[in-house]
Amino acid sequence: RHVSARLGYSTGPFDIAIAAGQQRFDVATALGSAGLTGANIATTIGAGAGTQKTYNIGSSWNFGFFKLMAFLDRETLNDIRETSGSVSGVIPLGQSEVRLGYDRSKLTLANGTASTVAQLKATYQYNLSKRTALYTTASLLDNKNATRLTLPGAAGQTSSGGDSKGVEFGVR
């Protein structure tokens, strides 16, 4: 069963929305938290015992020369809690644009163990047309605690609490 609601308001350059949702699991569900330890922490939710709750708020303000965006999300699943947030901006430059962003997520398990990861990213995009663009992105993923996440395409597994760096080029 899933129940959710969203409420948004937009006027001129300002936009804001809040949302909430709840999902109940009626069958046993295995959850894997990849990257927390070398063996990965796995939790199984028994039949009828799993309820996931989601709350988030997002907002943006377009100043014309710069668009600022922010997002905050809170997920809970029984005694497991994840809080994540993001602040980003877009700078239009004629046919191009620069995107800058910072994301942070903290996962807290039922036993009190916490794991945090933060990401800093920058993208340059050149729009060839309305639907086609060339882009390049550079990113740094900063693992805290025992977190071992890596960026897609990064060579090898990072050590606990280590960093992952990456650059990509592409056509959209």
Description of the structure:
With 172 residues, the protein is mainly β. It is built from no helices and eleven strands. It has strands spanning 2-11, 14-25, 29-33, 41-45, 50-62, 67-77, 80-93, 96-108, 114-127, 133-143, 163-171. The strands form two sheets. The chain has a nine-stranded antiparallel beta sheet with strand order 1-2-5-6-7-8-9-10-11, with no helix packed on it. A hairpin with a 7-residue loop joins strand 3 (29-33) and strand 4 (41-45). The radius of gyration is 19 Å and the shape is globular. The relative contact order is 0.13. The model is unreliable at 33-42 (pLDDT under 50).
Main features:
172 residues, mainly beta, nine-stranded antiparallel sheet, two-stranded antiparallel sheet
